[in-house]
Fold this sequence. Notes:
Elements: E1 12-13, H1 15-22, H2 24-38, H3 45-48, H4 52-81, H5 101-105, E2 107-108, H6 111-132
Parallel strand pairs: 1-2
Helix pairs in contact: 1-6, 2-4, 4-6
Amino acid sequence: xxxxxxxxxxxxxxxxxxxxxxxxxxxxxxxxxxxxxxxxxxxxxxxxxxxxxxxxxxxxxxxxxxxxxxxxxxxxxxxxxxxxxxxxxxxxxxxxxxxxxxxxxxxxxxxxxxxxxxxxxxxxxxxxxxxxx
Length: 133
């Protein structure tokens, strides 16, 4: 299958992993921000933020920072403890045998790629919230 863009040292691009790193934390941030905004009984959580967009960006920063730290700690654990490749996508559990360590690290995004993507989105959220607020 031809790839849309070449990734150095990657043999394939795993769409489910990319979705779990790039879009699912954003959906979680929107869900958490709307839930917190809707359940503010005594004091409005939106009142603490400068704007609604700033309030949402605070949750985006939180979600992507958590994803970045999870991937970074997964990479550290994998390299220091020699553990098996952590399952980042759902279909790995349906596989007849576990994904080899080499195959896991040759797919994009692996733990380091996931940490870099989530860290970049966190940085962009910090910059955007400082411009908004």
